[in-house]
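Q: Is it fine to ask for two folds in a single conversation?
A: Yes, each is treated on its own. Send the first.
Q: Here.
A: Result:
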Amino acid sequence: MLISSVAEHLAPQQTGYTMNSPLLFSLLDKFNEETYYEILDVNPANQFQLDYFSRVHCKLFLPGCGQQLLAMNLDEYDTKTKINRALVKNLQLYKNKKASLNLIMLWDLPNYLDPRLLNELNQFLLPHSTNDVILHIYIQTRENMPELPGQYTFQGDNKISVENNSVKTIPCPMYYKEALQKILSPFVVQKGVLLSNGLQEYILKRQ
């Protein structure tokens, strides 16, 4: 397993509730030892994540760029060139050395990004992705959501540990399927399931 990360150190172990993520683990359970995969996880590197993917022949891209993306103001990045430069810096994916991503894990970050920035992020990632790349996300379905994205880490028994980083709440965009597909085109929803904590889990595939 190769790791491409801008994190200076592994994130400490998080505490919090655990949840099922049936679509994600159903997908990952199909990964086999003979195939080489390239995987982007926007979370910082952590030991649970490294342990989980140690069984797979893969390269992990772990930019830990969630906070940097949240801080991007499109009024400041007002041209395609400025946006692209910022995304290159935050994601560490370069035009002259393109990745071939098979799986992109954005967790719940799409709920917090300006829809225009989410679209720009999507368009930026496409040239670094295979034709059959899979996008995995969690979409908030309640009127209000935590003020900040959660911290998601792999646990044993096909569980995900969730740490909410703020007790405050903010209005939720409550994306429905059609709106989500419009923003994330050419990705379309392949599967969706409503989890008990109010998150809608989606697997999207590039068309």
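Q: Second one now.
A: Result:
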Amino acid sequence: MADENEINKMLFSISKRIECKLGSFYPDAHYGSFYPYKSNKKLLLCAIRQALASYDGVYALSLEEVAGVVNIHIMINNEERVVRFH
């Protein structure tokens, strides 16, 4: 099991990967997501799941919007965490 510091680093990495536009990161053109789908929740969740596909043991479960903040519920090694975006 990863310690809290490692999980926080992973959550930071996940948030950067989701915010980064797919194809704009050199040298890995597959890094990033189609985050601009913020207005369509189903497409946004699909884009997030695609961005996290290379992470072993990490799954995007659901998302919700509360007062302009998008909360993404993520399962990391059977522990649920939340990543937030404005």
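Q: Anything structural to flag on that second result?
A: Two points. The chain has a mean pLDDT of 80. The longest helix spans residues 4-19.
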